Here is the input.
Amino acid sequence: MSFIPSSKEELTPQWFTSILGLSKENQVKTIELQPLGEQDSVSGYIYRVKLIYRKKKKETPESVILKLPHPRPLRTNWLLDAYREEVKFYRTIAHKVGIHVPKLIYSDIDTETCDFVLVIEDFPDSTNVRDETGATLEQTYELLENMARLHAKNWENLDVGSKLLGFENSIELLNEGLTCLPVFLSRFKRYIATEEKEIFQLLPEGFRNVVEPLLDSPKTIVHNDYAMKNILMVDRGGEHIFVLVDWANLRWGPGARDLSFFIMTSVPPHLRPRSEWAYLHHYWERLRREGVSDYPFEGLLGDYRRCIIMDMARIVNFGGGEYFSPMYESITRHLIQGRTGSARTLTLNSLFT
Here is the structure.
């Protein structure tokens, strides 16, 4: 088996020369590492690596993005799946998903331990904003169209779906994590509105029954972390494009999963209540324009409401887990705020009866 670096100290000019297949004449002379997620990444370590060559050729990249996993003792079952799925995505699916994603440069993984390394295209001139900042109104509509293109391109494409983990896996992992509800509520109850607290308290007994109908919904590629933090905005010769990154949570399931997560994480709270229906209709109309003609709006709305229940289970898992830090607290509070008011607006209680 080839050598897989386990830390930034093992990232050497010689290793980059090897994976890029360079000759001695234009080998990598030195590298400069810029941490992009070393202290606060949920899933591992991310670096921008600037490459300085002995003699640079036009086709060799000036910089790349490199991802490494957390140390083995910190790798939960969710992380093990995430590492396998992201490497598989870039190797087998990325080039045909229908939207802009980084190109794969190099990958390697030990499928037993999930030691891995992923080297992908860098977009050093891109801009990116935090989920807490959120999308502008114009960006929101553009990103809903981008999402619809991704989903429509892969709608019920079993050749793609056969390569991905299904939604059963997500439901099982989230349901297992609901045992931490008491811890979650003890940490965050003061930030939760009464209506949403009632939904959280119903999850341990009712979660499966509410979300399992999603297994019968139309399926497509679900990024499962479609949020501003994972969207690069790039200007290419006057063309404005979005590049979607971080495919570690990729699943095969209903597209409404991305829709609910994006609206929760990336639409500023003051915009969501008055525009949520407009967002749903815009996404649905774009799906139809892209060729999805057999998915009625009522079907989307039903899936969307159930996906919000998955959002809320994900909040519990994230905010009530054993690993907890100021970053986790900040993210959890943002997610809670992003779903405040949903229980009443979308009558979520009725899903549990």
Notes: The chain has a mean pLDDT of 93. The CA atoms of residues 271 and 284 lie 19 Å apart. DSSP finds twelve helices and nine strands in the chain. The chain has two domains: 8-121, 137-352.
